Amino acid sequence: KKNELLTLFRKIRENMKVIYRALSGGGEVELLMSDESDPLNTEIHIRASPKGNAFTKLSALSGGEKSLTAMAFIMAVQNIKPSPFYYLDEVDMFLDGSNAERIGSMLKANSSYAQVMMISLKKALLKYADSLIGVTMVDGENTQVFQKKVGEADPF
Amino acid sequence: KKNELLTLFRKIRENMKVIYRALSGGGEVELLMSDESDPLNTEIHIRASPKGNAFTKLSALSGGEKSLTAMAFIMAVQNIKPSPFYYLDEVDMFLDGSNAERIGSMLKANSSYAQVMMISLKKALLKYADSLIGVTMVDGENTQVFQKKVGEADPF
Amino acid sequence: MYVESLEIDNFKSFGVKTKILFDQGFTVISGPNGSGKSNIGDAFLFVLGTRSSKTVRADRLGDLIHNGKTRRNSCSVSIKFSPSEKDQIKEKVEITRIIEGVNGDVKSTYYLNGNRVRHNDIEEFLQSIGLLLDSYGFVLQGDINRIIEMSGIERRKLLESIA
Amino acid sequence: MYVESLEIDNFKSFGVKTKILFDQGFTVISGPNGSGKSNIGDAFLFVLGTRSSKTVRADRLGDLIHNGKTRRNSCSVSIKFSPSEKDQIKEKVEITRIIEGVNGDVKSTYYLNGNRVRHNDIEEFLQSIGLLLDSYGFVLQGDINRIIEMSGIERRKLLESIA
Ligand SMILES: Nc1ncnc2c1ncn2[C@@H]1O[C@H](COP(=O)(O)OP(=O)(O)OP(=O)(O)O)[C@@H](O)[C@H]1O
Ligand SMILES: Nc1ncnc2c1ncn2[C@@H]1O[C@H](COP(=O)(O)OP(=O)(O)OP(=O)(O)O)[C@@H](O)[C@H]1O
Ligand SMILES: [Mg+2]
Ligand SMILES: [Mg+2]
User: Fold this and answer.
1) Which residues of B touch C37 (CB under 8 A)?
2) pLDDT tens column, B41-68
């Protein structure tokens, strides 16, 4: 059990570095154990350097920088335990335009070997999609769904 | 002390109803005490009906509906304890375009009797502003600020 | 395998029976606040057998039944999986979950390709295609915030549950 | 009164002395993630006398000093208030707060129109113009989420602190 946790930890740490570098356009991230000799009682912390300068604790980063780091953690876990499909609900909510685009392009790349469904309010994300699903509620009670493959006429 | 809390509670409740109706385009909200006879030990809950149908607990609303309700609560408190200036940091983050616009137009209206500064990533909000401040970090270390009165040439 | 369709009947804000078709690749779902986007995610978790009502943002499973002008006392969700090129098995698989009963006791019934099965059979099928409900295959609205606010100990516990 | 300007020197990501001019009415501040928008809010809270470093997202007050290639051991923020039409007093008021010292002990010094004053004098001035730091005049990033996640008891305690 101790070794399983240590192996998983090391895999996520490596994956997270690669993903974060791509998501942040060159930043660095570290996943740290407060006591690697006692994995079952240790704490796990995240530090990041989004612009390549000094490493900062997760809590001292900006709102958007934190959420990009959290996303790198999630995607690292997804890489290690791959699934046939992924569902992501407004994970781009704190991000500015260019960070949201980087998430979009990474998800598009991932979607060549797994099905990806993402809920987003940002127009910037729509251009990465293969197909769009519009959801609305006209009568104040029932959800209605419109579907469109990218390239077809716009139902929205 | 008991009466002070009760009076404040009733004022916020009334204010919140009016503000929420404007913010949600016609919805209703209720601020409730679990035990009005014992205000110092009661719980305070929020229920809303964004589309005019049955009242729903705050926790069962959607992400955007919750944040609109929370915003109505905040603005109700601001109305009761007015301040010469207000600072709001990305309060529109969970909102879709039309809800964000309603927040923008309400803040614009409020800004005729108090100074309002709002941080937002949404383009939809910029059109309500009297002046814009652009913030960026070119060297990865120092924040730079650009200022523009609406109507002047665009520094962004 | 990939998800070919999701049919939602009288579940949450889907008072009208709705069938959503999915393609392989990248699908973006968009729409106004409160229109029912996250309810689609809840429908996925529900049909794939989640036991906890909290994951689908309800106090009791009974709250999942559409609450509107007319009130029926059951709801159902079906998901159809289709084989992709790399799959050995070439057949489609359909899972359906129905809940019945009024507010008090609610009974869940599962069907796999039309045959009534138990919860374990669904779990076994999902494991066979590598679909886990509790690792980050599903990132719910607000999960990003929860990860940011987590303490060092909670983060270790999270990794332990994934290991 | 309204805020005419905020001058930030060596505070957080403002390694270069910066003066921001404000108008009356509605100002929108925008820019990329991590560029320093919320740090402007922290500068406001700092100069207006917040005692808790947690409100300005720092472990110790010393962490507020700009940490860059060159490291000085002090930082300062000044705010200038200007009278609006309806104010009785027609003079401008400037508040400055300076912190000095390295990582360990940090000393805070306040100035009101150039004269050295104590923290209480700043508090008295702010009360006289109706500016309260702890009611919702300042809505920080994430406050919306905190209100949503609050329990019924926490909400009552919040109202008690405002009453
Ligand atoms: N059992 C039910 N019957 C009817 N409506 C329900 C039921 N359960 C939830 N709802 C409604 O569904 C709506 C929420 O939908 P959902 O959370 O999917 O919105 P969303 O599209 O994700 O919005 P957002 O962008 O704000 O996150 C709410 O208005 C809620 O009242
Ligand atoms: N003492 C300091 N010295 C130098 N930089 C600092 C200091 N304290 C914080 N920072 C940096 O300031 C940046 C955060 O700025 P801030 O939180 O204002 O961003 P923001 O513009 O609000 O972004 P977002 O849109 O993501 O909320 C971080 O990158 C952080 O490392
Ligand atoms: Mg949602
Ligand atoms: Mg910020």
Assistant:
1) 62
2) 999 999 999 988 889 999 999 999 999 9
